[in-house]
Amino acid sequence: MGGFPQCFGAIDGSHIPIITPTVDPLDYFNRKGFHSIVLQALVDHEYKFMNIFVGWPGSCHDAHILANSTVFAKGEAGDLVPDTKLRISGVDVPVVLLGDPAYPLLPWLNETLYSHWPINQRTKAIQLPAQQGTSGCGMHIRQLQLTITSIHPLRSYHLLM
Fold it and tell me: What is the pTM of this model?
């Protein structure tokens, strides 16, 4: 994924616009200034969707949504990414998911790579591929979002409460 070593895939979230709900409308008002529900998607290293988690109110933070998803449960149980390491510049690098800074640093989500490598040319060399990897995930999520909104026009996004 973008040349990032030991990358299993990437995770990202996207806001799907909705009509203002009548119950708890402020919960659905996001930081971008509109009402939405959040779609969290996990793609593998070939950008194939592996998991989609949708429905949390737009005001929820990505880390909160992750913590309440099956992706998190599997990651914490050790059932999400392969338990293999590759020795790179003297460091055993595990297989990890890429996520933007909204996600917590975990052993299976960026943590090991960033916490054990000193900030120098090696880390600068992986920052751009990491950004490219997560932006690729975001691009695929936007395509999914466009597909959802074209199949189900905005007027059909009423929340059942």
Answer: 0.70
